[in-house]
Automatic annotation (TrEMBL):
Residues 91-182 form the Fibronectin type-III domain. This is Fibronectin type-III domain-containing protein. It comes from the Bacteria. CDD domains: FN3 (cd00063).
Length: 182
């Protein structure tokens, strides 16, 4: 993707992606040559880190390309299946917020939408002069369960909304739900 005009500002940065790849390759080589349990554990840890970095990069590519096949192919990612014409994902249902395991955390879950959806969510804890919620930047997740909002302020009401994204487009936001943080 280096120098690809379709993706001018990749997130995460390509330098970070390359560093994660090289770190994993180094740990893999060491673990493959009769590595100790520590070497194998380090390799497995780096594999998870690399997978997370690549998921974030894939989310960026999908967000920018918005289903445009030439753009997707120019990213260098392998496409498992060609997008088929269909429907944008439905609205996520049964969004639930609950106290996280620690003070300053809110857990949220919702019903899964299809099998190939990723999700965007944003939260708010303030309103503007017109009473409209001031939403945070969008964040992404691939899971519909055990998601966490971190570093929330106790005794503040937080609002949350979620939407699904698939190869056919972006679904609508669900109705916001709220919870007073503990």
């Amino acid at each position: 993707m280096t120098g690809n005009a379709n993706f001018p500002d990749p997130t995460p940065a390509l330098e970070d992606v390359q560093a994660a790849i090289e770190d994993y390759q180094e740990k893999l080589a060491k673990a493959s040559q009769k590595g100790s349990p520590l070497d194998i554990s380090l390799k497995n840890e780096r594999k998870l880190i690399l997978a997370n970095v690549l998921k974030k990069l894939a989310f960026y590519v999908n967000s920018i390309a918005e289903g445009n096949m030439p753009m997707l192919l120019s990213s260098g990612f392998s496409l498992f299946a060609q997008p088929i014409s269909g429907l944008v994902p439905s609205i996520p249902t049964r969004l639930r917020m609950s106290d996280g395991p620690l003070s300053g955390q809110i857990r949220f879950d919702f019903d899964k939408v299809g099998s190939n959806a990723i999700y965007e969510y944003c939260y708010a804890f303030q309103k503007d002069a017109n009473g409209e919620l001031l939403w945070s930047d969008r964040m992404s997740t691939t899971s519909s369960v055990k998601n966490m909002l971190q570093a929330v302020q106790p005794s503040i009401t937080y609002y949350l909304r979620v939407r699904a994204i698939n190869s056919n487009g972006v679904g609508d936001w669900c109705d916001p739900v709220s919870l007073i943080a503990r």
